[in-house]
Amino acid sequence: MCSRLNTIRTNTKNYLPTERTPDDFFRVTGLTTKYRIRPKPSKGIYMKARKEGKVLINQDFKG
Question: pLDDT per residue over 4-28, tens digit each?
Fold first, then answer.
């Protein structure tokens, strides 16, 4: 199965990202995580935080 997946990635030029964003929802329960921020900040704010090595979190999250 791994070799098939590698073949598909090669053929489609698909790749694994070097960096992943945090999930907005827990995968098991479906509840929101502290990383879900609404309304969403602008892309500029996200890029600034990324450049500074920070991860944005929802300050009002009660989990």
Answer: 988 998 999 888 888 888 899 999 9
